[in-house]
Input
Amino acid sequence: MRGTDGDRIVLRGVWGTGYHGVFDHEKRDGQVFVVDVELEVDLQRAGESDDLAQTVNYGEIGADVLRRIEGEPFDLIERLAEVIAQDCLAHPLVEAVTVHVHKPQAPVGVEFSDVEVVVHRERELSEVVIAIGANLADPVRTVRSAIRRLRRIGLHDVRASGLFETDPVGGPEQPPFVNAVVVARTRLAPAHLLRRLHQLEAEAGRVRDVRWGPRTLDLDLIQYGTPGEDCEVRSDDDDLSLPHPRAHERAFVLVPWLDADPAATLRVGAQVRAVAELVATLDVTGVRGIPTPERGRKLR
Ligand code: PH2
Ligand code: MG
Ligand code: MG
Output
């Protein structure tokens, strides 16, 4: 799967008078600058919901662009393109952007029709934590296969915990779970990543029915960004709660997470806590490591 599924919003030909240029007369007289921006944004949710809050308002982008054209004068259109790109990436749903800055009246010294610079910039990678659970069919196989598939949906530097057999917490009487946690880095926006996790669940044959009931595959987004830093995403959206509101009390999440990342931290209310410290306060008797073939032991 490529970065952004190819969805994009393209705003072309935003123009205004600016004072960018190396020559004094450019800074004094000004000239026309024309900008095109191409935003890579997952548009599926907005397409389904018809809700402006789930996409990027191109009116806001246009206003930002014009403000930069008319604003602080730079020597180079490279610089103008760069600051416009960074403005666009500040929008949380924009995963990448291509900016064209045209300067059709530039003092080039020959007859010409246009000069433009083009820059392409992507969001920085954010660290994400995904909890995996399964307790139907062949859960060990399902969880292993989910870890392999996660590597192909736009996650980088994937680190997976070992597998754990865990007693079910809540819900009806049901078989034990197999749980694991993956720590990775991504440029996908949180809602986009969540949508891809749901796709993987569906591909594993998951039907969404009983809350906390048995499931072929459950992929929960636990945390997005590093708690306490700028990149941290906090959300109490109905379909996107970040950090996951119950993660801090769930041994079947924290024990595998600690296995994948001994230095992990998690926000609990106003505090940022070490996962190791949280685990020390929990009853972990319902969470048992499953010996892996890599460690040369037999699977149950
Ligand atoms: N998931 C639940 C509810 N209860 N219990 C265990 N042990 N493991 C789970 O993954 C799990 C659960 C809801 O997703
Ligand atoms: Mg769950
Ligand atoms: Mg879930």
Summary: The chain has a mean pLDDT of 94. The first helix runs from residue 24 to 29.
